[in-house]
Structure to design on (126 residues):
């Protein structure tokens, strides 16, 4: 995995963007709420690279997510789908996982237990 890292801090949310084999990996740490979601939305934007069409979001260090975070993930899902790509989520747990399940995000966005699992999944599985 090639490591091209960009760290961006957004208040209570830290975002580390890594490009790996034409896949954007976003490592999130902290809380996703109405104050921090603009930074997440910018990080989820595909930009001009092909990597922006295939995105893995690592939620294993996210301790809180409100509806603005859910909406950002839904928008990212639609954006990647429109670009013939995909979105995968990794490591959601506790109240964050419960929130995502309550709104049904797990029924259309693939969830994976580890980053390795998400990267190894074939495009047909998404």
């Amino acid at each position: 995995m090639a490591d091209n890292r960009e760290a961006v801090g957004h208040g209570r949310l830290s975002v580390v963007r890594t490009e790996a084999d034409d896949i954007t990996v976003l490592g999130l740490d902290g809380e996703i709420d109405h104050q921090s979601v603009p930074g997440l939305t910018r990080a989820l934007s595909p930009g001009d690279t092909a990597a922006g069409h295939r995105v893995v979001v690592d939620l294993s260090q996210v301790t809180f997510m409100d509806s603005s975070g859910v909406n950002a993930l839904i928008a990212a899902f639609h954006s990647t789908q429109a670009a013939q790509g995909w979105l995968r989520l990794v490591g959601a747990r506790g109240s964050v996982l419960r929130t995502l399940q309550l709104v049904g995000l797990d029924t259309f966005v693939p969830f994976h237990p580890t980053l390795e699992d998400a990267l190894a999944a074939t495009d047909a599985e998404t």
